[in-house]
Amino acid sequence: MAKVLVTGSAGFIGGYVVEELLGRGHEVVGLDNFSKYGPVTHSYDDNPGYRFVEGDARDTALVTELAADCDHFIAGAAMIGGISYFHAYAYDLLATNERIMAASCDAAIAAHRDGRLQKVTYMSSSMVFESTETWPSKEGDERRVPPPLSSYGFQKLAVEYYARAAWEQYKLPYTIVRPFNCVGVGEGRALGEAEVLSGNVKLAMSHVVPDLVQKIVKGQDPLHILGEGNQVRHYTYGGDLAAGIVTAMEHPAALNEDFNLSTAESTTVLELAEVIWAKIKGPEVPFRYVSDDPFEYDVQKRVPDVTKAREVLGFEATTSLDEMLDEVVPWVTQAVHDGRL
């Protein structure tokens, strides 16, 4: 079993990744500065195999010290949020995430040279395919299609260039993973001054599923959705994504490779909204919605090719949308009642 450094360990996907690592018997060091949600607790906080360090992933000296004593480094720290983030924090997303990535790579290069670090697993994003006009998007397309228009997508593409450049110059081994539309529990209201309204409800500045649930729970009727609702997404359970990320970290065939991690199932935003509406209000209440003006960077289709992850890693995301929502809807509903959303 390995010792693994996870930056962004208190984040949404990070929480699932730590849980997966501990479940496989790995020892985990988590680093986070609680910048998005504030202090959070997890069921594994007292696990003897887990050590948490409160600190900033931009602190190169700290990350170097932690990584030098670890076999693997999952570089997950980032300023991240839903579509509203791309507009409210366009510059911060670029500048903050660039500083995190430069510090992470500087630390990893030193830890690989002088310590026990074997490889970095980098968290990229489906947004690297933002400007594509052909689907499904397969590994390698990110270098053939026009670069992303959003600062967030552009920076995530830069993450992949960091990974390959650190290998080219310093022989720092890497694996790149691209999660698609994570769905799960654990998201709270993001900290920050920006307010984004959808109808009469302030968005949580996170992702589409918790925002749709909270709007319905708070009684919004008709439901406000962005655009016509024809946007196609692949909603993937956080536990499945974590399994894919850890498998990519462990698998020898993942060395210096990149992988789309996603369910193979396509769902439109309107289909998603209607399913959530029925789960909360019951099938007897007619589904009513209105369309708001869409955001500029609301990509209409984000459809991955998942063949490589299946054939090379043996990974498939198998949790259905219904199963995800049966877990997430009650969690978000309780968070609304508790005043956390």
Automatic annotation (TrEMBL):
One Pfam entry name: Epimerase
Start and end residues of each NAD-dependent epimerase/dehydratase domain: 4-261
UniProt superkingdom: Bacteria
Annotated PANTHER family: BIFUNCTIONAL POLYMYXIN RESISTANCE PROTEIN ARNA, UDP-D-APIOSE_UDP-D-XYLOSE SYNTHASE 2
Protein's name in the database: NAD-dependent epimerase
Taxonomic lineage: Bacteria, Bacillati, Actinomycetota, Actinomycetes, Micromonosporales
